[in-house]
Amino acid sequence: MNLYIVTGGAGFIGSNFIRYLLQKEKDSKFIVYDSLTYSGLPFNLFPFLKRENIFVVSFGKDFFKLEKSKVKGYKKVYSKKDLQKEIDKFILKGDRVLLVVASITNLEPLKVIMSFTDNLFHFAAETHVDRSIIYPHRFVFTDVIGTYFLLYAFKEINGQRGKFLHISTDEIYGEILKGKAKENSPFYPSSPYSASKAGADRLVYSFYKTYSLPVIIVRPSNVFGERQFPEKFIPLSIMKILMKEKIPLYGDGKQKRSWIYQEDAVRGIYLIFKKGKIGEEYNLPGNTELENVRVAEIICDLAGVEKEKFIEFVKDRPAHDRRYSLDGSKLFSLGFKYNWNFSDAIKRTFEFYKENFKFYKKLLKEKKVKKFMDIWYSNLKKKDEV
């Protein structure tokens, strides 16, 4: 049996990674560690996750308070011993996914789960650039301090055993107007999000250099596909069209992004975990570079609506990078190949949100999500919590 810890495993890429590995490794089991913020959803892990395997941690010290609406009705664990017992029972059962609801800034439960395995995939992060502009402190605490707590717990419990695979981002390189960023290219992050991820990236590397922690860093480009929270560009655009609303495009819409479908992304991450070298960084580039306006037009075509009526250009966001691009030579040397082209993948993604329209529409209408959208798109600058 292979037992893995996946932080942020109820989120977009983390949940798709688990779904992939459940098929790839028939004897694999997963301890998912997720605080279930607005974008972390048990839905993303169904039907593999059973309600009786969801446990809310009520011990230790959190830097953030969990959203009660998201954890209501699940079993609480009040001590390290309780959590250990539940994981012991899970390992003996035929079930394959267990969810521990807790923050990565809570050291005590982290130490408990790491006593069961030394293979960890770190997906947990605040990732939405727009939110980072209004609420930068959340990104610093989660992405930087949370990553530190994980590294510290891993060092204390596992030392130099196993593997700690950290998911970074292409945005740490900043704007790449020409050419492609290599793994040793300088960092020029331009948003609180990318800066916090750059800080986490370097923290991870420092624990390799200083303490010989067995880390590997992956820097993906823009990932899209099923189960992405509909605040990000592609799922938001799809949902806007399905709700018969206009797609908001920043500035002139000619910002370029390199897109990779989630199934290719998670395969690349797994390949790096298996064949990558400890202490190394690996870019995970997309295979299709498109202007944002072209992506919006493609979504309009899929929906059968007129582009002129459903695309709306809005004020550009601050420090909006014009283009990202990654050199994937190191990854390709491991034997990586793409299975999906953008055309087929965007059609599959569109159909997913169409089939699950009611669920995602309800998410967008939730009070806290709607409040953020109203604040952001009206260009208000408020310091109160979303």
Which helices and strands appear, and what pairs or packs with what?
Layout: E1 2-7, H1 12-24, E2 28-34, E3 49-57, H2 68-71, E4 75-77, H3 80-92, E5 97-101, H4 107-114, E6 119-122, H5 129-134, H6 136-158, E7 163-167, H7 192-211, E8 215-220, E9 222-224, H8 233-242, E10 247-250, E11 256-261, H9 262-275, E12 281-284, E13 288-291, H10 292-303, H11 307-310, E14 311-314, H12 329-332, H13 342-355, H14 357-365, H15 367-377
Parallel strand pairs: 1-2, 1-6, 2-5, 3-4, 3-5, 6-7, 7-8, 8-12, 9-11, 10-14
Antiparallel strand pairs: 11-13
Verbal overview:
- The structure is a single chain.
- The protein has about 375 residues and is α/β, with parallel strands linked by helices.
- Helix content is about 45%, strand content about 20%.
- It contains 15 helices and 14 strands.
- The chain has helices spanning about 10-25, 70, 80-90, 105-115, 130-135, 135-160, 190-210, 235-240, 260-275, 290-305, 305-310, 330, 340-355, 355-365, 365-375; strands at about 1-5, 30-35, 50-55, 75, 95-100, 120, 165, 215-220, 220-225, 245-250, 255-260, 280-285, 290, 310-315.
- The strands form 3 sheets. The chain has a 9-stranded parallel beta sheet with strand order 4-3-5-2-1-6-7-8-12, sandwiched between helices. It has a 3-stranded mixed beta sheet with strand order 9-11-13. It has a two-stranded parallel sheet with strand order 10-14.
- Helix 1 links the parallel strand 1 and strand 2 (about 30-35).
- The longest helix has 23 residues, at about 135-160.
- The N and C termini lie far apart (about 40 Å).
- About 45% of the residues are buried.
